[in-house]
Amino acid sequence: MAIADAVFSGGGVTVVTLTCCCAVVVLVVTLLKAMADMWRTVRCNRKMAADFPVPPGGHWLLGHLVLVGPEGGEMMRRNVEWAKDYKYAHVIQAGPVLAHCSVYHPDYVKTVLARSDKKDDFIYGFLRPWLGDGLLTTKGAKWFRNRRLLTPAFHFEILKPYVRLFSESTNVM
Q1: Quick one: the chain helix, strand, coil %, rounded to 5?
Q2: N-term to C-term CA, the chain
Q3: How far apart are CA 141 and CA 131, in angstroms?
Q4: How far is residue 123's CA from residue 34's CA, in Å, rounded to a whole number?
Q5: In degrees rounded to 5, what are phi and psi of residue 59?
Q6: CA-to-CA distance for 91 and 121, rounded, in angstroms?
Q7: Cα distances (angstroms) measured from residue 1 to each of 5, 7, 130, 139, 144
């Protein structure tokens, strides 16, 4: 008890000082984690830019956002042009940290959709409130479990009786 009296008396370390030190430590740890996440994202984007073509015209700081224009239609028009120029995929830079890979060749899309690695919470976070935790929005062990449960339902022998119905419905449309 004598140690506590010495520490918390007027001449020792106060509660306010300890609180401030803890706040500084939490702030520093949070900033270090954010910097590590940002650096991981930058490294991933650099690898993606090395693997896929990057259209010209990007700014060093703003990336391809300089091409958006006041209405935003210019970027869409350019994206369609790039899809014609780059047959499989291309990377759009959205600033120094963010990048977006547009994939449109069926073989590439199949490869991307078949992957079960970590899904981007930024994008899938918007979908989760509407779609719930389904096959599209889940990840990890839960994704494997759901995939294993759904796969037999799409076996050819199970879908065979519905082929005529699908064909008739397609003809009606």
Answers
A1: 65, 10, 25
A2: 84
A3: 19
A4: 18
A5: -90, 150
A6: 20
A7: 6, 10, 56, 52, 56
pLDDT at 73 over 60: yes
Q: Tell me: the pLDDT tens digits for 141-158?
A: 888 898 888 888 888 888
Query: What are 47-65's pLDDT values in tens digits?
Result: 888 888 999 888 888 888 8
* Interatomic CA distance for residues 166 and 127, integer angstroms: 28
> pLDDT grade, residue 77 (50/70/90)?
confident
pLDDT tens by residue, 104-117: 888 888 887 777 66
Instruction: Compute the residue count for the chain.
Output: 173
Query: DSSP string covering 20-44, please?
Result: HHHHHHHHHHHHHHHHHHHHHHHHH
Sign (positive or negative) of CA dihedral 108, 112, 114, 115: positive
pLDDT at residue number 15: 80
Residue 131 DSSP SS3: helix
- Residue 142: predicted pLDDT: 87
- Alpha-carbon 7 to chain mean position: 48
| Cα gap 27→31, rounded to integer Å | 6
